[in-house]
From TrEMBL:
Domain Type II secretion system protein GspF: 153-248
Ranges annotated as spanning the membrane: 6-26, 38-58, 78-104, 235-254, 260-283
PANTHER family from the UniProt entry: CONSERVED TRANSMEMBRANE PROTEIN-RELATED (PTHR35007:SF4), INTEGRAL MEMBRANE PROTEIN-RELATED (PTHR35007)
Membrane topology, record value: Multi-pass membrane protein
Pfam families: T2SSF (PF00482)
Organism: Streptomyces luteosporeus
Subcellular location: Cell membrane
Protein name listed in UniProt: Type II secretion system F family protein
Listed InterPro entries: T2SS_GspF_dom
Keyword Acetylation: no
Amino acid sequence: MTWWSGPAGAGCLVLLLCALAVAGLRLRQGPAVRRARLLLAGGGAVVGGPAALLPGWARQGAARLLRTVRGRPELWCLPAGGVLAVLGRSVLPLLVSLPAVPLVRHRLAGVRRERERERSRAAVIDLCGAVAGDLRAGRHPGAALAGWSGAGLGPGWSAVPAAARFGGDVPEALRKAGRRPGAEGLNGVAACWRVAVDGGAGLAAGLERVAAALGAERDQREELRAQLAGTRSTAVMLALLPVLALLMGAALGADPLRVLLHTPAGLGCLALGGLLECAGIAWTRRIVRAAEGPGSGRGT
């Protein structure tokens, strides 16, 4: 009998389940609830709710786990692999969860970068509309540009209001701020500013045209994402089918984890299935990226 099937394995399983339960309870508690509990307790430490029913060692382990994974959701692959390792009585799921951490981190980083790009694009559109409105109201261009907060445009924006206030090269500052991913529309703002200063053209009208063009591009991207939503949903469903098959097999008493992790045929099927799963995901991502066009930076 291996240690996975003995009391040590059962203890590890209980520890992991307790940690996950406490983590879920802590994450569901909003800041307002925690603040109210602290006030009612006079500012002292409060341990209440279902988490108080757990032993002290379980609460301490869960607290350490929460401190470790806070802001790093990819680390949840490790306890998930540990649970599967205990249930399947094999170290293989735990070993697989180790390389899964950087892969999940890379995927989450890509999602965060795309969200930052979307915020920058929206900020450029808002900037054009706000500055054009101020110019229509008779405000000076430098004052209108310097009054914009630059939220969503990153730290490179700080040079733009400074150039507008103190007579610097505003178009050059706008072009430098436009190097941020998603803020490429600032290059159009810089061109409008240069033409308005050198040739006396209407800056407000130019900014409104830039905002209209950027808004049309945003609408096109949103329409394309809506059309690709079905493809992504199908890919996710197909990727989850093996998990559903394992759950159904376990419910029927077939013990699929034992077959997959402790028999040569099961290990071969597991390796082949993993390769096919990765190939399917890569193929679907390639189709979606080809549909979105080059430079989209998005996957399924």
